[in-house]
Amino acid sequence: MKKICLLLAVWISFYGNNSFAQIVTPKIDTLNNVIVSQKKTVEEIFKEVEVLKLLEIQKKIKEIALPTPIQGEEIVNHSAYTLSYNDEHEQPNWVVHMVTKDILYGAVSRTNDFRPDPNLKCGSMDSVDYWNSGFDRGHLAPSADFRWSLNALSESYYYSNMSPQVADLNRGAWSKLENQGREWSLDCNELFVVTGPVLKPNLPKVQQGSFRLSIPEYYYKIFVDLYGPEYKAIAFIMPNKKIDDPIMNYVVSIDEIEKKTGIDFFPTLDDSLEERLEKKSIVEEWPASVQSTSAAAVPINFEKGQIGTAQVKYFFGETATVCGQVVATKYKINGKSDPTYINLDKKWPETVFTLMVFGKDRINFSYKPEEFLTDKKICVTGKVGEFNGTPQIIATDETQIQIME
Hints:
This protein is an alpha+beta fold. It has two domains: 71-297, Extracellular Endonuclease, Chain A (3-Layer(aba) Sandwich); 319-403, CATH 2.40.50.140. It has helices at 2-16, 19-65, 127-130, 150-155, 167-170, 173-188, 254-261, 271-279, 369-372; strands at residues 74-77, 81-86, 91-100, 136-139, 162-165, 190-197, 218-225, 232-239, 251-252, 306-308, 319-331, 340-344, 354-357, 377-383, 385-387, 390-394, 401-403. The protein is elongated and about 110 Å long. The termini are far apart.
């Protein structure tokens, strides 16, 4: 009982006249106000930094990364990317953006606020052009590259940044390529990225909505590192279909993309630097960490006009230079055509490309092809044909074959 009375007396002495509360409560309120003020100040600083970063990105894109103007295009600038819109095909010719290390700290989630682009004068596609069409609304500048800025990420959902992609591509190899770009940006500090469809006359249209949305056969993506210490570039062309091969099988030179699209990329760079970057993609400079489970073809550093064995099937009837590693050879003496089969990158029955030399043409070779070319990395130039569904080039002279170092 005495203890209870003592505690009661202490409580009255401190709280009975509210003197303690009158001293402490204002201090707590003051500290809470400081916390709120500091939090607001920090948020304002972050917002200001974000605005400055976006302005810097806009400046760099304008000064360095815009391709040569295209007749009839409409240029549209957004917070973190710029695009060239093609009204005939109702999608961009190209989209240029930057991937920076800020994505490492970004926490903005997908907004999924797909909508027409209010900055596009000619008007862009809408949901009626895509909904239940059988095609994904494929981002060209991917939203995940902007997860450090809510405004920039939301703007990536404009339909002017979309193109109809086969779902298996958009959610498969194309997604892997986008993820790989983000991985590279962490090593390179920042990357310029140019992405677009390969547009040409008479492409099929999505059969709904406006009936004006073209369905591309191919897409390209270019990564350029100008941060140093060594400047480098790598480029890709992928068909608008399911891809099971590793993404590095689709490496090409920027020159090859320029040839297919008619677009001149990075024209503001010094001529010698532009030529060096666009002439070849040096695969070893871009270590890939995102791959499919399929075995990769042996990397080749593609120069102007060169393609890999994974792409040759899209060049039937065209003259092309195909590069790969000789993995199997066979000289078959049958008393008729006496063919020599030289498989690049994959052996039978998974053959992806065959170089053929017929017996009558062996006189034009200073070596025995089936022996001399074994295990070598080569490039062969000629018209792409096919035999039993497998792409092939017939070499009638050794000058068609280049040995790679």
